[in-house]
Amino acid sequence: PAVKKAITEAASQYTKPEGKVFEYGTAGFRMKADLLNTVVFAVGLLASLRSKKLSGQWIGVMVTASHNPAEDNGVKLVDPMGEMLEAEWEAYATKLANAPLDKIADVYDELIKEIDVKMTNPARVVFARDTRASGSRLVGVLNAALTATEVEFVDLKYMTTPQLHYVVRCKNTLGTQYEYGEPTEQGYYEKLANSFKKVMRGVKVQGSLTVDCANGVGGPKLRELMKYLTGIDIKVVNDDVINPDALNFDCGADYVKTKQRAPPSSKAAMLDRCASLDGDADRLVYYFQDESNVFRLLDGDRIATLAASFIGDLARNAGIASKLKIGVVQTAYANGASTDYIEKVLKLPIICTNTGVKHLHHAALRFDVGVYFEANGHGTVTFSENALKVIKNTEPQSPAQQHALESLQALTDLINQAVGDALSDALLVEAILAHKGWSPKEWLGTYTDLPSRLVRVVVNDRSIFKAYDAERKLESPPGLQGTIESLQSRYNKGRSFARASGTEDAVRVYAEAASRSEADDLATRVANAVS
Ligand code: NG1
Ligand code: ZN
């Protein structure tokens, strides 16, 4: 009752935006920052319930809107192992976020019964935010909700999303056999730097890497990480976190992937290795200008194929290939050429899942080594308990085997297994290119992307677009799937699908085909059929 009163009192400071329905989507709640107070308050309440339900394990709350414009913000919950919030709880989050403020304590009470939370359990929450101006206000709201519900909490101030996931996992595994690292920012840098050094034994990074930080939190954090790194020359650009409007503006991973061009501010020379992060540093894409000054993108599909081929080679060299089931997880947005390359050249199994990292992550756990990336650059590699054991306990039969085993061991530390992490992924790519002795040109040469087009179509009601088969087909509206299939069959290597976006009020149409004009044409025709 005291807590209930405290919740009602704290909630009364805020006003709920009228007529707005909130939904915990693929990326948590995300919208214009001035609409978010009551949503963040609700998320604070839910974080405390989630922690109590899990016997006082630490739950993370991240305040960020990733690649969205500066005036947006968002909030999402992180589960104890650094994973996204369990799907079943998304509905509870939605319910609390939509509760009228004078009833929110009642809804909270109802949830306690519905979820069967033992309220005598302790609750622990750790939170962080990106560099958006609205972040400090929203963290204040979060603070109010956690204080009202008597939660033990830690404010980590500014962090990248993956850093927060890392800390959550560390805090919950501390002192167990699954210990993941020191639960601090410094611990994160030390872990990455030490493992990078080990992976790099005997090889050298050629040239430098220019990293566009989207003018977000990744900038200062990459600069910090660089203090710990040796043997790599990183040039940091777009790291202005003072001018609030600069965030994700004309730069960053989303800009580069969507516009298929380098940030206009880029001063990179021909064949220079460039990479872009997004606003909270969980997405990464690479690119360069080739000899004909043509922009060349190396997206998430490329990072996946590079990582899968390297780990496959290491496993063979270490003599443990038969003991590890290595696989790749993609979504329908993966370029068909990458899928072909994985199947025919790398000869690895592929799982195709729904869009959204949580789906990919879960599928990846079905492999001993699960490589998953969305085409837009969000992803990582997971290692099963069996994989970790095999890598650790195998007796090397030769110096070459020993070197391969040690490299694999270091990779398991270099890769942020909790969640896709642009900083960790960049070090992974740098290490692999160094081992292979490749410039981005050789990397690009592994296969040729099919020209593709992504179109956003605004429709009256996107909820009528119901997909199946990992979102590659539509069962509703009736007849549309047939139309799409007959259209794509007219194009050489044509493939197209439409699905309702989980983050925007629109339908996305994807099309690829053997030539640029065919891909564009197919996309236009399918978009017309959709609208
Ligand atoms: P939606 O809006 O559901 O297509 C987008 C991205 C996803 C993922 C989520 C979450 C595309 C086509 N879709 O989802 O890959 O990153 O945002 O941020 O890039
Ligand atoms: Zn992001």
TrEMBL record:
GO molecular function: magnesium ion binding; phosphoacetylglucosamine mutase activity
Residue span(s) of domain Phosphoacetylglucosamine mutase AMG1: 184-285, 299-438
Keywords for the protein's UniProt record, in alphabetical order: Carbohydrate metabolism, Cell wall biogenesis/degradation, Isomerase, Magnesium, Metal-binding, Phosphoprotein
Enzyme Commission (EC) number: 5.4.2.3
Active-site residues, as the UniProt record annotates them: S66 (phosphoserine intermediate)
InterPro entries in the record: A-D-PHexomutase_a/b/a-I, A-D-PHexomutase_a/b/a-I/II/III, A-D-PHexomutase_C, A-D-PHexomutase_C_sf, A-D-PHexomutase_CS, AMG1_II, AMG1_III, PAGM
Alpha-D-phosphohexomutase C-terminal domain span: 454-528
Task of the protein: Catalyzes the conversion of GlcNAc-6-P into GlcNAc-1-P during the synthesis of uridine diphosphate/UDP-GlcNAc, which is a biosynthetic precursor of chitin and also supplies the amino sugars for N-linked oligosaccharides of glycoproteins.
Family according to the record: Belongs to the phosphohexose mutase family.
Entry protein name: Phosphoacetylglucosamine mutase
Originating organism: Penicillium vulpinum
